[in-house]
Amino acid sequence: MTTVSSPLAGRAIGLAAVPDPVFSGAMVGPGTAIDPVRGPGEAVSPVNGIVVSLHPHAFVVVDDEGRGVLTHLGIDTVQLNGQGFELLVDKGDAVTRGQAVVRWDPAAVEAAGKSAICPVIALEASAEALAEVAESGNVVVGDTLFTWK
């Protein structure tokens, strides 16, 4: 079982509330989403593992069980071409749960006309594989977002 921790502080809102049909329809995979606290901060790794995909707006960490967790910083933020995002690790790096991966500012994302909502997705998983999915309430970095059976 993998415990997926919150990479950000904010409010859990669930995937259905994400303003993007790819995420709200769980087409990428099941999970939840966070409406992050506004202001500069860091997105951290939700699991121990290896960074297998790294972009300014999104990253995937694969744990030792081969499970990939996508953290997507905002919606349509790929269109910002990395502006306002600072990578703190490299693709291929081993990271620990809670280690900073990207520095960003959700308020700046909104000022650029994008949503700051952050989906956290269990890649290649079924909805039935997840338990204890946080879909409401305040979360701090490190709180459990869901468990992956």
CATH superfamily: Glucose Permease (Domain IIA)
Whole-number tally of structural domains = 1
CATH architecture: Distorted Sandwich
CATH class: Mainly Beta
Helix content: under 10%
**Number of DSSP-assigned strands:** 14
Distance between the termini: 5 Å
Instruction: Report the biggest beta sheet as strand number plus sense, adding barrel if it closes.
Output: 8 strands, antiparallel
Radius of gyration: 14 Å
Share of β-strand residues: 35-45%
Order of helices and strands: EEHEEEEEEEEHEEEE
**What number is the mean pLDDT?**
96
Strand order within the widest beta sheet:
9-5-6-7-11-3-2-13
- Return the structural class: mainly beta
Looking at the structure, the CATH topology is Glucose Permease (Domain IIA)
The number of helices is 2
- Tertiary shape: globular
pLDDT < 50 runs, ≥5 residues: none
What's the topology here?
Blueprint: E1 2-5, E2 10-12, H1 21-24, E3 31-36, E4 41-44, E5 49-55, E6 58-62, E7 68-72, E8 86-87, E9 94-95, E10 100-104, H2 106-111, E11 118-122, E12 130-131, E13 138-139, E14 144-148
Antiparallel strand pairs: 1-14, 2-3, 2-13, 3-11, 4-10, 5-6, 5-9, 6-7, 7-11, 8-10, 12-14
